[in-house]
């Protein structure tokens, strides 16, 4: 049973309460900042702390009112209008960096140096003080983004706030509000004031709404005003498809799936209609100055990303990446933090090249990839096809993974799809953390493996990414309480439980003063004698 409850405030319900088997705790930094952790209580009297993205919603003591928004934790942390990149370059450790150091288990100086080099970004706008600081960079834990947002056809503002709470509950490190329907501004305001994690947007979507969906009517002035509107609200990072150049558009003509990025297709349509480079490219320096004044991070969009396996790593994709590299250096010169968005659909053998090229062209700016999907043949399972690619690309250095839900290519995800997508991507991210040797990653695996081997079922559930489902699957066949300490489950049954047999071998060895190998040999010898003494027959008559 989940510990979650619905906190209903003036008719707006969001999920509150700790995840089963855990409680919110806070780890202090040197200067006394309180860094949240999720503390899992174990049945052997120990506890295990894990990185916590869920904000106050999982704190039993928190007073949640979605109409008031979250407490503005970071208000007053930085009085001067400078970006995290500028502070880092000047050798200053900001409170955000101090907070992140405790969260990631590294030194504050390491955080500062990674930000100064541009290898990592801290995407927290000055206008979003409710957000808890986090970092995106290849030398930190791999992060997961969840996309939300109502479309023109379905879903309400309240539902989107709940999806944000729900996604962060299960581990989303950032969320992107991709609303395209009516009430875009209002939806974003609700999400921002209630979000404990950074919020990203694609401002061209809202700009397009303002010109009734006709890309050729977009202007720099209208786009600039939209950017400022969103910066004022507190958006932390923005996808800008400034790398879609006029001369790249024909490169997509022979593709199987053309241009699949919404932002990419809007800008391509604009370039063709006006027959000149887009205002995102020609006004990029002005854009940098606006983002710098709020410390909003660029997420340079891959408008020409491949939308199918056939189009992976083609000339259009890599031509745009070269331009994103050029823009990265311009943004950094303005003191603006930058990350780079990546594909898409890429077969396994072509994934590594994407990371290597991105790092080379974009000065190791954090790579932020959608999947990639490693095959196109499994609609309804694209959370899995993409998690395969995501684990691989993260292993090679991608810093943040944009989740994919089972509804990808099919419809707008509901609450269950959001959870499935987040958990699937936490698996991909954590697998990459393990492969990269992140110091804290294996500790959780070891704790769970130990609980599993010792048949501490409750600890095994609670240490898992999704305790509710792990418990439900176990209880489907063995619901009785004594089964929570039983030395088997219904998969192999009591007689064939290999872990119980291993434990028996170890107990036998201890009892007879033997090593495990000797004990196995001894046990085999006893069984062999027993077999011979019964006539050496493989099949025994039923009566025996
Ligand atoms: S019965 Fe099989 S699956 Fe279940 S705990 Fe034992 S070895 Fe593991």
TrEMBL record:
Cofactor binding description: Binds 1 [4Fe-4S] cluster per subunit. The cluster is coordinated with 3 cysteines and an exchangeable S-adenosyl-L-methionine.
Instruction: Choose one Gene Ontology CC annotation of this protein and give it.
Output: cytosol
Residues annotated as region Disordered? Answer: 1-25
Q: Which terms under GO biological process does the entry name? A: thiamine biosynthetic process; thiamine diphosphate biosynthetic process
Instruction: Provide the protein name.
Output: Phosphomethylpyrimidine synthase
Q: Which gene encodes it?
A: thiC
Q: Which PANTHER family match?
A: PHOSPHOMETHYLPYRIMIDINE SYNTHASE, CHLOROPLASTIC, THIAMINE BIOSYNTHESIS PROTEIN THIC
Query: Keywords on this record?
Result: 4Fe-4S, Iron, Iron-sulfur, Lyase, Metal-binding, S-adenosyl-L-methionine, Thiamine biosynthesis, Zinc
What the protein does?
Catalyzes the synthesis of the hydroxymethylpyrimidine phosphate (HMP-P) moiety of thiamine from aminoimidazole ribotide (AIR) in a radical S-adenosyl-L-methionine (SAM)-dependent reaction.
Q: From the Swiss-Prot or TrEMBL record, what is one GO molecular function term? A: 4 iron, 4 sulfur cluster binding
Tell me the ranges covered by the ThiC-associated domain, including all copies: 19-81
Q: Where does Zn(2+) bind?
A: 345, 409
Q: Give the species.
A: Prauserella sediminis
Keyword Zinc carried by entry: yes
Cofactor(s) it depends on: [4Fe-4S] cluster
């Amino acid at each position: 049973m989940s510990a979650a409850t619905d906190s209903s405030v003036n008719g707006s319900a969001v999920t509150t309460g700790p995840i089963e088997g855990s409680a919110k705790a806070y780890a202090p930094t040197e200067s006394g900042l309180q860094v949240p952790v999720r503390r899992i209580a174990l049945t052997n009297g120990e506890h295990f702390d894990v990185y916590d993205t869920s904000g106050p919603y999982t704190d039993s003591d928190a007073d949640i009112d979605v109409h008031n928004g979250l407490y503005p934790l970071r208000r007053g942390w930085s009085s001067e209008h400078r970006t995290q990149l500028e502070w880092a370059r000047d050798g200053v450790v900001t409170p955000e960096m101090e907070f992140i150091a405790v969260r990631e288990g590294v030194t504050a100086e390491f955080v500062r140096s990674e930000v100064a080099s541009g290898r990592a970004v801290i995407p927290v706008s000055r206008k979003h003080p409710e957000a808890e600081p986090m970092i995106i960079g290849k030398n930190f834990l791999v992060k997961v983004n969840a996309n939300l947002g109502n479309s023109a056809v379905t879903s309400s503002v309240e539902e989107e706030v709940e999806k944000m709470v729900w996604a962060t509950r299960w581990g989303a490190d950032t969320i992107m509000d991709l609303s395209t329907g009516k009430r875009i501004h209002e939806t974003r305001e609700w999400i921002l004031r209630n979000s404990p994690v950074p919020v990203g947007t694609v401002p061209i979507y809202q700009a397009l709404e303002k010109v009734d969906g006709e890309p050729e009517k977009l202007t720099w002035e209208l786009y600039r005003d939209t950017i400022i509107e969103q910066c004022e609200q507190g958006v932390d990072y923005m996808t800008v498809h400034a790398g879609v150049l006029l001369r790249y558009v024909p490169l997509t003509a022979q593709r199987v799936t053309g241009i699949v990025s919404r932002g990419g297709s809007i800008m391509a349509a604009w370039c063709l209609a006006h027959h000149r480079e887009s205002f995102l490219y020609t006004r990029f320096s002005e854009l940098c100055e606006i983002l710098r004044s709020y410390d909003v991070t660029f997420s340079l969009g891959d408008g020409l990303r491949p939308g199918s396996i056939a189009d992976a790593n083609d000339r259009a994709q890599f031509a745009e990446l070269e331009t994103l590299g050029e823009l990265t250096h311009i943004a950094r010169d303005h003191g603006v933090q930058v990350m780079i968005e990546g594909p898409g659909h890429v077969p396994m053998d072509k994934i590594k090249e994407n990371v290597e090229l991105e790092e080379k062209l974009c000065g190791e700016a954090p790579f932020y990839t959608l999947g990639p999907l490693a095959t196109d043949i499994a609609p309804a399972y694209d959370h899995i096809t993409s998690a395969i690619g995501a684990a691989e690309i993260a292993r090679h250095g991608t810093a943040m993974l944009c989740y994919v839900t089972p509804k990808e290519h099919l419809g707008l995800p509901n609450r269950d799809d959001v959870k499935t997508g987040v958990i699937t991507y936490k698996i991909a991210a954590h697998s990459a953390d393990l492969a990269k040797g992140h110091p804290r990653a294996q500790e959780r695996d070891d704790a769970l493996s130990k609980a599993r081997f010792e048949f501490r079922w409750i600890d095994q559930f609670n240490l898992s990414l999704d305790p509710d489902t792990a418990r439900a699957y176990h209880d489907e066949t063995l619901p009785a309480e004594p089964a929570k300490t039983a030395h088997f489950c219904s998969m192999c049954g009591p007689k064939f439980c290999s872990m119980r047999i291993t434990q028996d071998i170890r107990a036998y060895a201890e009892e007879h003063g033997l090593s495990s190998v000797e004990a196995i040999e001894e046990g085999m010898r006893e069984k062999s004698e027993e077999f011979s003494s019964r006539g050496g027959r493989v099949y025994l008559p039923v009566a025996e």
